[in-house]
Amino acid sequence: MFIGEFEAGKVIHEDLLVTQHAIRQARNGKDFQFLKLQDRTGQIDGYNWNYQAGGPEFRDGQVVTVKASVQEFKGNLQLNIATIAPSGAAFDRDKFLPSTCKDINALYSELENMIARVENTHLKKLLVAVTQDPEIKYLLQTAPAAKNVHHATLGGLLEHTVSVMGLALRVCPHYPQVNQDKVLAGAFFHDIGKIRELEYKTAFEYSTPGMLLGHLYIGCEIFERFVRKFPHFPPDLATEIKHIILSHHGYLEFGSPKRPKTMEAFIVHHMDDLDARISIISDAFASNPGGPWSDYHRLMERRFYRGAEHENPAVLQDNSPQPTPPAAPSVQEKTKPSAARKDFAQKPFENLDSVLPFGKDDD
After folding, report:
1. Which residues form the HD/PDEase domain (predicted)?
2. CA-CA distance, 157 to 145, in Å (whole number)?
């Protein structure tokens, strides 16, 4: 049974992946064991109230066998753990790590089709060289876009990249003064550093280069490594693409060393932010599929509403009798002034007495 199938009141006995582990202290002063557990369908918090000091502890990325009762607390499911021990089963990435629901090969074909629309020969040659590199291709098809915030799935980085480029193709034609080729190249490279920033063999974690450098710097390194293969690549153009990479978080406090200073950088920043937030909201709805409201999202500091039609699908359906349209007037009626029109022309304001929400004596 997968986490997505857990129901309150059930007892489960399953192998699950540890993504977070801590020894905490309850209000009565007694230690308990907290774990965040995962399989490909989602995550769930587990509480081992029977933990004894000196008992076994677990590391992130370790598979454990858990026997527990499923409970509901404040609208969320959690596990009350009876027993927990290291599992003897071999790690199966397809079982424990979530994957994008999109077809990877179809996504990569879509990526290549969008690159084919680039007209600048320098950018097109560069993008083709990167996407045809076997190592880059494998990592792009495998890496998540984040550890846990948005598109946190195997293949999530490719899904996010293709989505941001697709948004760019819809926005750029609205602004003819924008260079669409630069936007597409910037959208492709903006998060490419995540193939090195994150580790995703047994769990989604930050690598040492990711912790020390971050994906903006790593992305510029990858970009420059491929640019060096083209001696005639314009330096100014390279600088503009690197600016998009470095500024795509938008603000200094969000990790960008520079704020967007070109129209193309502004577009990539906002398309990236939009796609990430829609992914966050979609995941929030998925965590509570039965109700009109999502669970509270700590990062976004709010709950999200699906819409009135989710509570009552008939709310958008107008089943009331439709009025019969009046018959078309004859030619004589069209040319003959109506009595109401004539009366209004003679006494225009007196005819408003029944319409305006105040009496004749009001100021």
Report:
1. 153-286
2. 4
Q: Indicate the angle between helix axes 235-247 and 121-132, nearest 10 degrees.
A: 60
**Sequential DSSP letters for 291-314:** SSBPPPBTTTTB--B--HHHH-GG
By C-alpha distance, which of 254, 154, 158 is closest to 201?
154
Q: How far is CA 361 from CA 26, 39, 343, 357, in A?
A: 71, 74, 22, 12
What the chain holds in terms of domains, given with CATH numbers, is: 3-92 (2.40.50.140), 97-286 (1.10.3210)
Pure H helices in the chain: 93-96, 104-115, 121-132, 134-142, 156-171, 180-189, 194-197, 208-212, 215-227, 235-247, 263-286, 308-311, 331-335, 339-346
Q: Which residues pair with 42 in a beta bridge?
A: 39
What length does the chain have? Answer: 363
Contacts of 175 (CB under 8 A, 6+ apart): 263, 267
For 239, the token pair is 């600088």
C-alpha–C-alpha distance, residues 16 and 20, integer Å: 12
Mark 275-313 as b/e (b = at least 16 C-beta within 10 Å): bbeebbbebbbeebeeebebeeeeeeeeebeeeeeeeee
- For residue 206, give the nearest of 222, 192, 195 by alpha carbon: 195
